[in-house]
Amino acid sequence: MSIITREQIENTRYWIEAFYEACDSLEVRDWINEFFQLDAIVHLNNLSIIQGHSQLIHHYEEYYSLLSFVEHRIKGVDISSDRCYVHVEVTSIAKNDPEQIPVTRKGLMIIEKKLDDEKLNSFHVYIDSTRLIDRIQMHM
Asked: Cβ–Cβ contacts within 10 Å for residue 22, how many?
């Protein structure tokens, strides 16, 4: 078992905050290029795995085109030498929603990356987006 230093924990927390800040900017290409390895995978709930920059960019550009706002609030972080467990609240607003009603969901996201790496290997998202999807579909 490797020893994790306070500096590694602080750097990882800073990295996680920057990761979600970039995600919330809706600048998908910049977010993917800065934080994901070229062959990184994303696993969303029980859906198929998405792998590689081009597929990730395609998926997230399509998804974010449906939103006018997204904000991840970090509620808790557990850090190990090769992964981070991040408890989040995600608030989103559907782009075509005339009332612009925010929908907030709680979830767990697992980021697999070594402490000193700059980019993640894989990103697992466990969140129930049913209410948001319903809201999006209601105004399509």
From this structure: 17
CA–CA gap between residue 105 and residue 84 (Å, rounded)? 19
Whether residue 37 contacts residue 119, with contact meaning beta carbons closer than 8 Å, is answered with: yes
Give the integer Cα–Cα distance in Å for 97 and 139.
Answer: 6
Tokens describing residue 104: 């907030």
Q: In what order do the strands lie in the sheet with 120-127?
A: 49-51, 36-44, 120-127, 103-112, 83-94, 67-79
Extract the runs of DSSP E, i.e. beta strands, from 1-140.
36-44, 49-51, 67-79, 83-94, 103-112, 120-127
Structure tokens that stand for 98 in this block: 């005339």
Question: From CA 46, how far away is CA 57, in angstroms rounded?
Answer: 20
H or E element that contains 52: none
> pTM for the complete prediction?
0.94
pLDDT one-digit tens code per residue, 75-97 = 999 999 999 999 999 999 999 99
In angstroms, the CA 132 to CA 44 distance is: 15
Residue the block writes with tokens 């987006």:
129
